[in-house]
Amino acid sequence: MKATLYRFIAVLMLVIPGVMATYGFLAMKDAFFAQFGSPELNPHVQWGKMAIGFVLFLAGVAFIGGWIFFRDRKRNYVAPRFKAKRKKQ
């Protein structure tokens, strides 16, 4: 029972940043394409929504990328230049 709960929490730790990155991408897309709508409503790029979307997208992708990188480093799947440095004795 404990292992199931731990796996569920681990999946949530990857799903939440994924949802953040997806929402950030969609917010940036909406902010960009808002300028092509009708000129009476809002003919400009919505810079606030664009900035929030960029931050959410960057945070989500950075978390998932870092998680994959450290998992691959632990399993020794990375190139030699990314392997952990050893102290010289």
Key attributes of the depicted protein:
89 residues; mainly alpha; elongated
Q: Short description, anyone?
A:
The protein has helices at residues 2-33, 47-74. It is mainly α and 89 residues long.
Number of continuous helical runs: 2
Helix share, percent:
55-70%
Distance between the termini: 45 Å
Q: Unreliable runs, pLDDT <50, ≥5 residues?
A: none
Q: What's the story with the biggest beta sheet?
A: none
Return the string of H and E elements. HH
> What class would the helix/strand composition place it in?
mainly alpha
Number of strands: 0
Mean pLDDT: 88
Cα shape: elongated
Give the C-alpha Rg.
Answer: 20 Å
Give the strand content. Answer: under 5%
Written account of the structure:
With 89 residues, the protein is mostly helical. It is built from two helices and no strands. The protein has helices spanning 2-33, 47-74. The longest helix is centred in the N-terminal third of the chain and has 32 residues, at 2-33. It is elongated and about 70 Å long. 9% of the residues are buried. The mean pLDDT is 88.
